[in-house]
Amino acid sequence: GFSGGEPLARRDLAELIRAARETNLYTNLITSAIGLDDDRVRGLRVAGLDSIQLSFQSDEPSLADEIAGARAHERKLDVAAKIRAAGIPLSLNFVIHRRNIDRLPQMIALAEALGAERVELANVQFYGWAFRNRAALLPTREQVNRARDIATAAKARLAGKIDIFYVLPDYYEMRPKPCLNGWGQRYLTVNPIGDVLPCPTASSAIPDLRFENVRTHNLDWIWRESESFNRFRGTEWMPEPCRSCPQKEIDFGGCRCQAALLTRNAANTDPVCELSPDRAVTDAVLCDANSSSDDWPEWTYRTNPSPLPV
Q1: pTM for the full model?
Q2: Share of the chain above pLDDT 90, in %
Q3: What are the residue ranges spanned by the domains of the chain?
Q4: Which CATH superfamily is domain 7-172 in?
Q5: How sure is the predictor about 292, in pLDDT bands with cuts at 50, 70 and 90?
Q6: If 0-12 CB within 10 Å is exposed, 13-18 middle and 19+ buried, where does residue 294 land?
Q7: 2 φ, ψ to 5°?
Q8: Which of 83, 88, 122, 241 could make an SS bond with 167 (beta carbons 3.0 to 4.6 A apart)?
Q9: What ranges make up the beta strands (E) of the chain?
């Protein structure tokens, strides 16, 4: 998968896709659509791109543009049509949070109208800038339950036409997700400067972890020998209660980045787990999110965008 940031910022993207296809890898582009015109769509198709996933902030233009901090929604709609016209399978990813989750039916309707084959209704995961904006983004329990019912009904109604995936916010779970299906087991990420990460968010969430670079070591050595890939590989690193838990080779102790962000120690049990000694940290966050107050914090943008043009 080619993700980001924004992978379209790379001038050699078509070359990278072509190289991936030559090694029989399935290629998927995850993009905001900014910078994707007719010529580039055709070029990516010729290079062998298998599918494109467009990210949307809402179905409603003004809300989508407010969340994005730029007038991007109409551009996304135009690009979706170009992708379909080029014959590239289209999937949509709606990033769900407190401000837009109540528009889930309209988002699903937009996916139908655009001819998407796959839709991810993904509640925001609290890493990076989302962690900083957590108070403004985390939905209430009532919102989450209502959205789950809507997604379940849509999945049944659209079976055989659109694949729908609804991703719960981690904090509302009682057992942790099997993040990456185990650290250093299946996945790696090469970032734009060549650092190789076991997890895309690890470099920001776990600052004491050193990552190797493809300019100094090959991928095989990094995968097998590097300290970063071996630190949380397997089960020997686990503390209790994970070490003696019958689920330890199913959920692998949960998310290392989440443990680091919420407990300041990446080796701790994921505090989403009801068995974690730090579960109270997660419960306190949920208590704040479900308070009666309707005063939502303002967004903190990654940069300070200029006011939207009129």
Answers
A1: 0.88
A2: 85
A3: 7-172, 179-273
A4: Aldolase class I (3.20.20.70)
A5: low
A6: exposed
A7: -105, 110
A8: 122
A9: 28-31, 51-56, 90-96, 118-123, 163-167, 189-190, 196-197
